[in-house]
Amino acid sequence: MFSLRRTRVNPVEHPGTRAFTVKMTPIWKLDAVRVAGTPFEPGRHHEVVVVGAGLTGLATALLLAREGRDVAVLEAGEVGELASGANTGKLSLLQGSVLSTLRRHHPARLVQAYVEANVDGARWLTDLADELGVPYSRRTAYSYAQTPDGAETVAAELQAARDAGLPVRRVEPELLAQSPFPIVDAVALDQQVAIDPQQLLTAMARAYLDAGGALHTGVRVTHAHIVPHAGVETSAGFAAADQVVLATATPIIDRGLYFAKTRGLRSQCVAFATDAPLPEGLYLSVDGATKSIRSITPADGPAGAAQLIVGGNGFPVGRSPSPRACRDDLITWTREHFPGAEPVAAWSAQDYQSHDLIPFVGAMPRGLGRVRFATGYAKWGLSNAPAAALRIVAEIGKVPRRERPDWMNVISTRFTVPADLARGGVENLRVGWEAASGWLGAQAAPTPVPQPGEGEGVVASRGGHPVGISTVDGVTRAVSAVCPHLGGVLRWDDAERSWDCPLHASRFTAEGRRIEGPALCDLTRLPRVPGEEIEDGEPAASVPHGTAVG
């Protein structure tokens, strides 16, 4: 289960007690090469416009372009801007406790369809990587219990995976004892994949351009139209299309109310330089605070910069008292179990989980068959995203249902069970509580308030309106702290230094620029008011717990 000791490459000296304060950038992007896009032509018509240059968008666009279709991809940032370029690079059909959780409330046929979708998605991705010359390694994946309480979950996952046709096995106790971190029990699946996701995305984007596709980076889509014709409004003008694909992690239009059928989740990741013995496998815990562990080798990532990735400590967006503390806990945990390991990069990523635990893919309700979308991968996008692209392309191409893989038809006709309704009900009750408590908390903290320190933010009330005040890179700014989507009061993320909505997971920079989520516009930037922030030592209104994170 574990490799021999390796010599650390490019060691980084960090005193063990010093806080990790470098910019939040995924290890995959430290030396990433930007893909040059193509000039945007306002008003031009395309057969298909794809919104988003992540894995779903690029896979869909590449498949369509290779069919000879006229395709344009629009991306507000760069290729792999968000989750697709910020995951841990683990492509596995063994996904923690996903299969046993599904099987607990759903028929075996639906679980089987989910596995088959992931098999097809994973096969498509590795075949493409082989074609494009993107290296990857084959690893054994482990779903493991950190404590005796998790052993029952491991047993359930073993049975659910076997029932779905996966060749899993229980790990022998003598092998568990070799682990440098606590493992009480584990189920294993061989021949899974570790890969550099940003290198893959870059290669996909270039292949798409070679196939004749148009790639417009730095162009933000602000609205999608269905009638009288399909198309999108962007920051650079209008783009018309026969079909629109929203590959935006969560749909940017509210038809179908998918923002209320999913929840946004964030996870922390830290890459370490270390010469400690490293695990050969891909590890994900099924109990307690999640821990996701993999090594980096020259075959699957920038091994010269870091040799180990530890992720986890996830939380619903906007609902953690301190994301930075979650990240720092990962560093502490890693230093305990891998002595000498020092962080060289840290980041976080966001994905969405549907209340019935199966991704939503297909035609947008009341979209006249002109708009399609995908969401709800629950952090398993490396296999679910290609599967979603395969289904979307089959629908756009009007492939008869009888000629499609069976999993596409099973998943498209799934039904909601009481457990799904209960899960969704609990989440939406929490959304209501967050909405009310956010406004009450803001009103209880009228200005003036202490000026936030570097990297800190606070929500206060200015004349009854929640205002977000933060200090980043020495600049103190004020923005409206009300999410433009449905009016939730934002919370400060002290790791990413962003304003996050605890209702439906929209996120904004300290300057108020939209990052992601169902919100479509930026926050209103507000002028700073003299006397609104006071220096340390001056009297100020009491700021209740939860309004300041930093």
Helix content: 25-40%
| Principal-axes shape call | globular
Detail the poorly predicted runs.
2-18, 539-550
Strand content: 25-35%
Number of strands: 28
Class from helix and strand fractions: alpha+beta
Count of alpha and pi helical runs: 10
Largest sheet: 9 strands, mixed
Mean pLDDT: 91
Output the radius of gyration. Answer: 23 Å
Please give the alpha-carbon distance between the first and last residues.
Answer: 39 Å
Q: Mind explaining what this structure looks like?
A:
The protein has about 550 residues and is of the alpha+beta class. Strands 3, 4, 5, 6, 11, 12, 13, 14 and 15 form a 9-stranded mixed beta sheet that branches. Strands 1, 2, 7, 8, 9, 10, 16 and 17 form an 8-stranded mixed beta sheet that branches. It has a 5-stranded antiparallel beta sheet with strand order 26-21-20-19-28. The chain has 10 helices and 28 strands. The N terminus and C terminus are likely disordered. It is globular. Helix 3 packs across helix 8. It holds the Pfam family Rieske. InterPro entries: FAD-dep_OxRdtase, FAD/NAD-bd_sf, Rieske_2Fe-2S, Rieske_2Fe-2S_sf. Keywords: 2Fe-2S, Iron, Iron-sulfur, Metal-binding. It comes from Microbacterium yannicii.
Which features would summarize this protein structure in a list?
8-stranded mixed beta sheet, FAD-dependent oxidoreductase, 550 residues, disordered C terminus, disordered N terminus, alpha+beta, iron
Q: Which helices and strands, and how do they pair?
A:
Blueprint lengths: L44 E7 L3 H12 L4 E5 L14 E2 L6 H8 L2 H25 L3 E10 L5 H13 L5 E2 L2 H4 L8 E11 L1 H14 L3 E4 L3 E5 L5 E4 L2 E10 L15 E12 L8 E4 L5 E5 L12 E9 L6 H15 L4 E13 L5 E4 L7 E5 L5 H16 L9 H7 L5 H26 L5 E2 L5 E7 L2 E8 L2 E6 L10 E3 L4 E3 L6 E3 L4 E3 L8 E2 L6 E2 L13 E2 L1
Parallel strand pairs: 1-2, 1-10, 2-7, 4-12, 10-17, 18-27
Antiparallel strand pairs: 3-6, 4-6, 5-6, 8-9, 9-10, 11-14, 11-15, 12-13, 13-14, 16-17, 19-20, 19-28, 20-21, 21-26, 22-23, 23-24, 24-25
Helix pairs in contact: 1-6, 1-8, 2-4, 3-8, 3-9
